[in-house]
Amino acid sequence: MQIKRTLILITLILSVAGCATQAKYDRRLEAWRGQNSDELFSIWGYPASSFVLPNGNTMYVYTNGSTTTIPVQIWPNNQVNPLSGQQVNHWCKTYFEVDKDKRIIQCSYEGNACISR
Predict the structure, then answer these.
(1) What is the domain extent for residue 105?
(2) Distances (CA, A) of 87 to 15, 18, 26, 62, 63
(3) pLDDT, tens digit, 9 for 90 and up, residues 55-110
(4) What is the pLDDT of residue 35?
(5) Residues 69 and 49: beta-carbon distance below 8 Å
(6) Are 62 and 44 a contacting pair, CB within 8 Å?
(7) DSSP characters for 62-108?
(8) Cβ-contact 102, 38 below 8 angstroms
(9) Which pTM does this prediction carry?
(10) Strand residue runs (E) in 4-81
């Protein structure tokens, strides 16, 4: 029973921390508006992909991800079995729209693991 309460508490703490992290990520991305895409490349590296939008601008896409196993099986002596568990995928795609003058005009993201760079 104690382990179940601990897991619930950890989940709640991570949820609250996740909201704070997303707000920070929003502010970081907003700071890129108006910047030159060459500066973005020098700090973030080259994107995973890019494509040309119908308006002639280019969308650069950065991706990252990982998988974590959360233990769920409890052995009779109340120890967690490290070989059992549920896999959770953490991922983030960040989009930068760049105009013909190489200025970043729009930033957005999606995913459950977007954190500041």
Answers:
(1) 2-111
(2) 18, 19, 27, 23, 19
(3) 999 999 999 988 887 766 666 666 666 666 777 888 999 999 999 999 999 999 99
(4) 97
(5) no
(6) yes
(7) EEEEEEEEEP--B-TTS-B-TT--EEEEEEEEEEEEE-TTSBEEEEE
(8) yes
(9) 0.69
(10) 49-52, 58-70
- Evaluate whether residue 103 is within a structural domain: yes
Distance CA 84, CA 15 (A): 23
Count of domains forming the chain: 1
15-42 pLDDT, tens digit per residue, is 444 444 678 899 999 999 999 999 999 9
CB atoms within 10 A of CB 90: 14
Helix, coil or strand: residue 117: coil
For residue 17, the model assigns a pLDDT of 43
Strands across the sheet containing 104-111: 49-52, 58-70, 86-98, 104-111
User: Which tokens sit at 6?
Assistant: 């601990």
Residue 32 is encoded by which pair of tokens?
């890129």
Residue 18 within any structural domain of the chain: yes
Residue 78, CA atoms < 13 Å, CB-side half-sphere: 5
